[in-house]
Every structure is written in C-alpha cells, then in structure tokens.
Design brief:
The complex is a heterodimer of chains A (about 525) and B (about 180). Chain A is of the alpha+beta class. Chain A is built from 15 helices and 23 strands. Classes of the chains: A alpha+beta (about 525), B alpha+beta (about 180). At the A-B interface, loops of A face helix 3 and strand 2 of B.
C-alpha cells in the first residue's frame, strides 16, 4: 500500500495514495472534471488536454491525468482560466466534428455533447468547411468506424494494444490530417465492441446497436452476464419489455470495465419466438397448453404416484446451471423431499481465453456445485447416464437444455426415450422432449431476481429487467409450489428469504444476505474450485 | 431570533372588485354590440359572420397547430432521420419510431413512424424539438375516425409534400430566427 498524501482541491482536502493521477484522485472524491483520453484501466495518454487544472507553483495549467498527486499540492479547478481553457479545447474539438447527433448512436451519452453543453461556448466561430473523412467504414465483423466523429483521444488504440494485445487500430498521419484507422487486420478481436463503450463520441459503433434505439429511452438494470462462468457485471438496456443492448458495468474484481462480444450480443434469447409461453401437459399422446395450477397439480400427482411406486431413488434430476443460487437451493430441497439421490448439472464447455471468457458457458455452474447438485469432475453426468442406461433411474426432472448441448444428440434422445416419466422445465421445447409428461416454461436471467456464483466463487446479484407475463411463475416459484404440494407445508419463493435459508443451510453462503451482495458481489466463504 | 410581523397595506379594491355585477353589463354590452353589428351587415347584404362549414372553410392563421405531419422532400422520401427527439419531447408519448439504415447519404430513416392521434394533444413540442424540420404542425384538424385503430397514423399517411407546408415553415423561420 502506497503512502497516502493530502492534496487541496478548491479548498477541500483530498487524500489519495502516492502516485495516483491527480485526475483519478479528484474523480474518486466525486469531483466532476471533464476528460476524454483518461481511462482508469488504460495507460495515460494525455492527448485530449481537457482535464487541465491550475496547480500552485506551476507556471501554466497542467493536465491532471498525467500529474501524480504530491503532498501539499494546491489545485484549483474552478478559475476563469480553467473555464476558458476547457472552452478553447472544446472549440478545437468541435472545429471538424460533424453535427451528426440526430443520426449518431452515441447521442445522449456522448461526452462531447455533454461537455460542449456544460463547458463549451455554444457558438461556432468558424466559417471554413469541415474536413471530410470516411463515414460508416466497415472495420470489423461487429464494428463500424466514423472517422469524422473521432476526436483522437486514442482510448481505442490503447485498448487494442494493452488489453486485447491485438493492436488493430492506430492513428495515422499527423497534425490536423490525423485520422483513426485500422492496419491490414480488421477489428475482429473478441472484445471489439468495448471500443465502442470507451469511445467518448460516436466514432466507433457497434453494428448490432447501430440505428436501433435511442439511449435515453433505455432503462438500465444492473445484472450479471449469463454467457459464461466469469459472471461479468453488466447493465441491461430495456425498453418496451425488450432488451436492446447489454453494456459492461465496472467491477474491478471481475471484469474491470470490459465484456466479450459474444456475451454482449447474447441477449436475444429472452425474446426468442420459440420460447415456451405456457405450461403444457401430455394429453392423449401430445402436449397441450394448460394453466399453471393445472400443470403444477398434474406434476405433483405424477411425482407422488411415481415415488410411491418406485421410490425416490429411481428419480434422477438435472439442474440447470442457468438457475440462480436461490432456485438451485429450492430445487435441492424439492429433490430431498422426493428422496432423489442422483442429480447432475451439466455445463456446456467451449472456447476460453485468459482475459474474461471462461470455458463453462453458464453463469451459475459453480453455484450448482456449491449446493451439492453436481458432484465429481463431470458434474454428476456419468452417474446419471449410467443410472438411466442400467434402468435404475426411471424418471427425470430435467431443468434447462444444457443436457442436449453436452451429450451427443442421439444419446440424449435414447436416454430420454428409455424413461417412464420426464418433467421438463426449459426455455424452448426440443423435439426430443415430445414425450415429456409435464413441461414448464423457464425464466431467463433478465426476468428474475437472485444471485449467481461465478467461477471464482463470487456471489453476485441480478435484478429484474423484463416483466414476465401476469401470473407467470419463475423457476424458483415452480419448485416452491411443487414442494408445498408434495410436503404439505406452505412454501413461498422470495429471493431474499430463500437466500437467508440458504445461508443458514449451505456453508459456502453462511453469513451472507442478498442485500449485502450489493452491486459488486461478495466472495463465497470457500471459493468454488472450477475444473 | 423572534419572528417579526410586517404589516402590509391592503391595496385599494379596484372598481371591478367593488362592483362585481358590472361584469354582467360588460358581457351584455359585447353581446348587444355584436347583435347590432350583425343586423347592420345583414341589412346591407354582407353575411360574413357565419362560415358555412364544411362547404366554406376558415383559412386558419399559420400559428394554428393542427395535427403533426411529416415533411416529404421532393425526392419522395421523408426528411425525418428518426433521431427520436420528438418521441422524447412528446408529453403524451403518442409517437413511436423505429429507425433503420439506408444506403444513401442520410444513413438513417424511420422504418416505423406512428402517431396515435387519439393521444396527441397538438402541443407542438415535437415540431419544436425536431432538428431537421421534418415534423410540423399542419392545419389539419378534421381527423375523426370510426375506430381506435383509425386514430393510429402510420408514416405513409403522415407524409405531406413540403410545398403544402410552406406557410407553416415560413412562420416557424420567422418565429425562431427572431
């Protein structure tokens, strides 16, 4: 820990570790200092000149991003000279900036717009024509570049060099001919859309969000990316009960300020047309939509009859690693009530890197392991498959579609067809499941509250962004209702209460509450070992 | 510090406050004046006091705000670039826009531009918010319909050639450039 130093800014004393950039110290103290090129997760460039402040003892204004704090420094940020300098810098930036705001996706969250309104002069003195550069250049599979809008802060250049190490972008030419462009290699790295996030203006745009929705209409909800075990913190941009984009949310313990392109573009499944919208039960050889109550009644009756005839140990269970901790805990309780002994939580594994992308392609595989729903290095899959193939397991409560992604399709089909009773709870009905007795629609991460445990055992909270249909029961409520139907005791599903129960029952979560997790999350007591 | 009391002199009541029934006389005077004016003009054969709607129509002044319409440029396309500012400015949220991309230089156009006229209150804030002079208040107010669906106007119904809106545009230029 570096020595702490004291700096006086506008009469107030700030304390910061030695060596911190002055700008960062001021931003941490809640001061609003305009800046473009400085980014806490990138190296310092000092190219935008907007963060200049007056420091006592220095002959001229200094850029606060490249000035480390020193003990006894006296800084002024509200003097007329600072205001005049900011206005001058903004005027120079706006000299050639096209007035594209009506068609620019960044409008509304554009730093140039915001600062020009707050610190700029509001009048242009130029009569000369603006420079012409490339517009809407296709520089990558997921990215567009507008060179006219670029203010040459080089955040994206540093991002590609320092974070992804791919270095596709660079500023070419000199002076007022400078322009941002790519080398021979296109901007196709796995984190390319992060450059659109850190771009203070609309020079770099995501093709996916291009001309889709105005940012000021979006309601942002904090959540966690469901794409892989890393659990990147995100904001869900919702409007009209539809997700329009996902953006990373800063969490230094998980994802800094980044997220991968795959996770970011993986938001369409909650509004997929093939999603199940109502529960179904088998009626004369085919599945028919019924009400929630009817389906729950039927499901409880089937389970009761089956357990009475064959015993609870003949029922297998597959927990979905996309369920929240609370729902998995309730599922575990339901299985215990039935006397189920064999459970698995298969996780699809895929490509990974050593920045953010993890091999396990589900948000809560670690949670399933911590709650004892998956044992062994293969998540209990082998025991489950063997049990079905040897005829020991005759019924299956199947949550999620992951089983079909992990097993070879023919094998999954064969396993399912050898079962007497299948209860399925998932987002979409696969053809292999046409023989299911009861089908419940599952709920996506965006429609529920709760918590996920990431690969490192960090418990992180998610909030509801989309409103499910009236009367809709989320996964945890289905488990709770089934348990109350089977055991007779009244059982409700409130994430905070269930979390409390879970903290009392499961050692890794002991001492935690859902409120305590906050937006940043808390590590579980003994971190989940990710294979 | 004790609270002080300041005595304020009550202003002397005006004539209208002292004699409220005088307002009745004023009203009667207006009605009587109009009656005799009309009678006089009728006797002279100049019946300019009644407009026989719908055969005759009043030419509304350009400041009048009728229903909002979209400006159609000479190339047949809308001027709108779907920036969404009118949607944002609209106090009744009656505008729905979904933007899309075009290959021409404008880059962006509204794929869907719907105005729910049953919710529109003709306030003109959309016109004021528009950076492109693409949505203006027309003189059209006769937009009654038989079904609720009929009050939902789509982009094709809303487009009006620019020259038909010239009076309003000239008025706006005078109004905002002053």
């Amino acid at each position: 820990m570096a020595r702490s130093v004291r700096v006086t800014v506008d009469g107030a004393v700030l304390e910061a570790p030695e060596g911190t950039p002055l700008l960062q110290a001021m931003l941490d103290a809640g001061l609003d200092i305009p800046h473009y090129c400085y980014h806490p997760k990138l190296s310092i460039d000092g190219s935008c000149r907007l963060c200049q402040v007056e420091i006592e003892g220095m002959p001229k204004l200094q850029i606060s991003c490249y000035t480390p704090v020193r003990d006894g420094m006296v800084v002024r940020t509200q003097t007329p000279e600072v205001a005049r300098t900011r206005q001058g810098v903004l005027e120079l930036l706006l000299l050639n900036h096209p007035l594209d705001c009506p068609i620019c996706d960044k409008a509304g969250e554009c730093w140039l717009q915001n600062y020009a309104f707050r610190f700029g002069s509001h009048f242009a003195r130029t009569v000369e024509p603006r420079r012409k550069h490339g517009k809407r250049l296709d520089i990558g599979e997921r990215m567009l570049l507008d060179q006219e809008r670029c203010i040459l802060c080089r955040r994206c250049v540093r991002f590609c060099r320092e974070i992804t190490g791919t270095g596709e972008l660079a500023v070419f030419k000199l002076g007022d001919r400078s322009l941002l462009d790519i080398y021979d290699q296109r901007l196709d790295n796995d984190y390319s859309i992060c450059t659109a996030d850190i771009c203070p203006v609309g020079a770099l745009e995501s093709k996916d969000f291009h001309h889709r929705m105005r940012v000021w209409f979006l309601r942002e909800t904090a959540s966690v990316c469901p794409g892989c075990a890393n659990g990147c913190n995100i904001m869900i941009g919702e409007r009209g009960n539809r997700i329009w984009r996902l953006t990373p949310r800063r969490n230094d313990a998980v994802n800094d300020t980044w997220m991968c392109d795959w996770g970011r573009l993986n938001y369409s499944f909650p509004q997929a047309p093939q999603r199940l919208l109502s529960p179904m039960v088998a009626e004369g050889g085919r599945l028919a939509a019924v009400s929630w109550e009817q389906a729950l009644e039927r499901c409880a009756a089937e389970l009761r009859r089956f357990v009475a005839r064959h015993g609870g140990s003949s029922v297998g269970a597959v927990a979905s690693p996309h369920l929240t901790n609370e729902e998995l805990f309730r599922f575990g309780q339901l299985l215990a009530a039935l006397g189920v002994e064999t459970s698995a939580a298969p996780v699809r594994r895929g490509r990974f890197d050593n920045l953010l992308i993890k091999a396990e392609k589900a948000a809560n595989a670690a949670g399933a392991r911590l709650l004892g729903l998956a044992r062994g290095s293969d998540d209990g899959l082998k025991a489950l498959c063997d049990g079905i193939e040897r005829g020991r397991l005759k019924a299956l409560y199947l949550c999620g579609e992951d089983l079909f992604e992990v097993l070879v399709p023919e094998r999954a089909q064969r396993l399912l067809s050898s079962l007497e009773l299948v209860i399925f709870q998932g987002l979409a009905l696969l053809p292999a499941l046409s023989g299911a007795a009861v089908v419940f629609p599952a709920t996506t991460f965006a429609e529920k509250e709760g918590s996920f445990t990431n690969h490192a055992g960090r418990v992180q909270r998610i909030w509801r962004a989309l409103q499910p249909a009236p009367g809709w029961l989320c996964d945890g409520e289905i488990f709770s209702r089934l348990r109350s139907a089977l055991c007779g005791e009244r059982d409700t599903f409130d994430p905070a209460e269930v979390f409390q129960e879970m903290a009392a029952a499961a050692a890794p979560f002991s001492g935690l509450t859902l409120e305590q997790l906050g937006t940043a999350g808390v590590p579980a007591a003994n971190g989940a070992a990710a294979p | 510090m004790p609270v002080g009391v300041i005595k304020v002199a009550r202003p002397a009541p005006t004539l209208a406050q002292r004699r409220p029934w005088l307002a009745l006389l004023v009203g009667l005077w207006v009605a009587t004046r109009h009656f005799f004016q009309s009678a006089f003009l009728f006797a002279r054969g100049r019946q300019n006091f009644t407009v026989h709607f719908p055969e005759q129509r009043f030419l509304q002044p350009p400041a009048m705000r009728g229903m909002p319409v979209l400006v159609r440029m000479s190339n047949g396309k809308e001027r709108c670039v779907a920036c969404g500012l009118c949607e944002w400015a609209c106090p009744t949220s009656c505008i729905t826009i979904f933007p899309a991309e075009t290959a021409d230089g404008v880059e962006r156009y509204p794929e869907v531009f719907d105005i729910d006229m049953s919710r529109c209150m003709f306030c003109g804030l959309c016109e004021e918010a528009c950076p492109e002079e693409a949505i203006v208040m027309s003189r059209q107010v006769e937009i009654a319909c038989y079904s609720r669906r009929g009050s939902l106007w789509h982009k094709e119904d809303l487009l009006v050639p620019r020259d038909q809106l010239q009076t309003r545009l000239d008025y706006l230029h005078r109004h905002y450039d002053a």
